[in-house]
Amino acid sequence: MSGIRSVVLVEGVSDQAALSALAQRLDRNLEAEGVSIVSMGGASAIGEFIENVLKVHGPNVRLAGLCDRAEFGDFQRAIERAGLGSNLSQSEMGLMGFFVCTDDLEDELIRALGVAQVERVIAAQGELSSFRTFQNQPAWRGQHAERQLRRFIGTKSGRKARYGRLLVDALDLTRVPRPLEAVLTYALAPR
């Protein structure tokens, strides 16, 4: 892990896959630029990860993070416990490199692409008929398509990570969701 200058802490492998794919699309080599994207396996582990990153890489490492709106409090409390700030607002956390998705990663990507484009990505994976079956389940019938897509992407092990990358690959680079763009920009910025 030598040569690491920035560490981006993310909740799960779908966030890690999406950010890695976005960096590739932007012609950035994270490894060569000393940026590591670390999947924590859930937001509740943020405090332990901040402590470990600082212990391993020292106080000069640039810390950044990406979380879902529901996990903002976990990130906020962990940053406070680490002595990096107190009672920080979402915008203040952004200045420190920690960014919040409106709902979650999938929501950001679905809104950026639009329902029709996400369905094309699903069709290219041979899963459109599965999605249509899912839409017709009583609990999901009549729900907004964006909500159905978010849930469908999360219903099968490994699907969120796979679609994290696939949806980023389908993005028009002028429509990259702000939290994804912001966290990469922060992590890649020169010191």
Describe this structure in words.
The protein is of the alpha/beta class and 191 residues long. 52% of the residues lie in helices and 10% in strands. α2 (46-57) packs across α3 (72-81) and α5 (105-113) runs parallel beside α9 (159-170). The mean pLDDT is 95.
Q: What's the story with the biggest beta sheet?
A: 4 strands, parallel
Arrangement of strands in the largest sheet: 2-1-3-4
Number of helices: 10
Radius of gyration: 17 Å
Count of individual beta strands: 4
Which percent range describes the beta-strand content? 5-15%
Low-confidence stretches: none
Helical content stands at 40-55%
Tell me the overall shape: globular
**H/E element order:** EHEHEHHEHHHHHH
Mean pLDDT: 95
Span of the ends, CA to CA: 19 Å
Identify the quaternary structure here: single chain
Structural class by helix and strand composition: alpha/beta
